[in-house]
Amino acid sequence: MGALTLTSIEKTYPNGHRAVKGLSLDIEPGEFVVLVGPSGCGKSTILRSIAGLESLTGGEIHIGDRRVDTEPPAKRDIAMVFQNYALYPHMTVYKNLAYGLKNRGVEATEIDRKVREAADLLQINDYLDRKPQQLSGGQRQRVAMGRAIVRDPQLFLFDEPLSNLDAKLRAHMRLEIKKLQRKLSATSIFVTHDQVEAMTLADRIVVLNGGEIEQVGTPRDVYHRPASLFVASFMGAPAMNFFSTRVDGGDLVLTDGQRLTLPAEQRPALNGVTDITLGVRPEQIAVTETVRDGLVTFDVGMGEELGVSQLLHGQVADAEVVLNLPKFERHDEPQLGLSWPEDAWHLFDSRSGQRL
Ligand SMILES: Nc1ncnc2c1ncn2[C@@H]1O[C@H](COP(=O)(O)OP(=O)(O)OP(=O)(O)O)[C@@H](O)[C@H]1O
Ligand SMILES: [Mg+2]
């Protein structure tokens, strides 16, 4: 029995909008699961339904062997951390941390012990007497986490808790959350639309599209074996390059007639499909200054210097293509030859969008 089990959960809002479409998921004890997907795909709805802030219109939710979707939120033993922190502005940090425990009738000495323990863990001991508006964004975020930790819940839910922070603090807090989660072995679900956050935090990533699961897997799985065009285009920045092709014998033919010879071990995967979208990640493409047979012809466009690497934009047949080159390479030629290793080919059925 998993720590949390979602069984065919459904949420149709009163206005008729079906935000979650029969979604099932099993989360292991201590696992850190990240829900990722574009705006409106149902991430918050799923989290709010687990917390009990929304009622399901179908399916069941279990924590261990206890059914919770029929229980009121207070009985579910879940703590949620929100994007806007939702701290009480008129209370000190100490009182913000203590409030939930006090409400549940926990004894004062026990409250004090738990508050100080959480404050230690989060390094907010020095701010216990301050009010939230006297804190920086990162400190407020820590208080919000502290409020979840003192409750010692069975499950932590995070709804985009880092999205109000600037890029540097965000990266720092991301690491802090990961360390903390490891230390507490707390079963957690973390929602974000930031694919870097998803990749770095998750034991497993759940990619959502329109209220349904597109893929569940480790960050590696999802990145290196995306199950669909949707996942392939969502995970990775800059995004994977896609080429429309038709199969001809053992070749993929681009829209301008260029022929690419498919690696032999990829051929059985085609399985009779004739319209293939070929995906190649920008960082897996190598450039050669001469254009010759066996290389793909690339019309050079704009370059962008990123410091650690260099993006080179351009065109292959009718496709906009971006290369992520490891070091600064100056290219004055109008055309370059492209190649990539055998493990860089991602083949998708153009009609269904599914990986072959
Ligand atoms: N109370 C509501 N009534 C009707 N529709 C709603 C309600 N709340 C959300 N929705 C719709 O349900 C869908 C899912 O919303 P949800 O907030 O879960 O998306 P999300 O994935 O969290 O998006 P974001 O990344 O923008 O936060 C959206 O199309 C949204 O417009
Ligand atoms: Mg949301």
UniProtKB/TrEMBL annotation:
Matching PROSITE patterns: ABC_TRANSPORTER_1, ABC_TRANSPORTER_2
Signal peptide: none
GO CC term, one of those recorded: ATP-binding cassette (ABC) transporter complex, substrate-binding subunit-containing
Domain ABC transporter, residue spans: 4-235
Keywords: ATP-binding, Cell inner membrane, Cell membrane, Membrane, Nucleotide-binding, Sugar transport, Translocase, Transport
Gene Ontology terms, MF aspect: ABC-type transporter activity; ATP binding; ATP hydrolysis activity
Keyword Cell membrane carried by entry: yes
GO terms under biological process: carbohydrate transport; glycerol-3-phosphate transmembrane transport; glycerophosphodiester transmembrane transport
Xref: InterPro entries: AAA+_ATPase, ABC_transporter-like_ATP-bd, ABC_transporter-like_CS, ABC_transpr_MalK-like, ABC_transpr_MalK/UgpC-like, Mo/tungstate-bd_C_term_dom, NA-bd_OB-fold, OB_MalK-like
Superkingdom classification of source: Bacteria
Pfam families: ABC_tran, OB_MalK
Protein name, as recorded: Sn-glycerol-3-phosphate import ATP-binding protein UgpC
Species the sequence originates in: Saccharospirillum salsuginis
Gene, per the UniProt record: ugpC
